[in-house]
Here is the input.
Amino acid sequence: MNRTQRLVLAAASLGTGYCLYLLVGFVRVIAENRLPTPQHSRDHYLAVGEAYSGGFAIGFFLCFCLAVIAIVVGSWYENSVRGRRAVAEAPALSS
Here is the structure.
């Protein structure tokens, strides 16, 4: 794995970890019903919509980071297999 792949993998891993942290916080807010409780029903629906739009954004970026990790690991694995196959198929050197 080259330096660029390692850097991208590290950044995507950090992004994934942060998204998982935010996702746990979002699920806790919804599960514990800790949405703000305004006086008017319109404000309540706006608060619910804001919470769910935040959850959607977290889920989107989590999927994005996981896709980047899959691409980096997949290309690294493919290059590794291609290199091993080239070594195995190379003609033996005679002395």
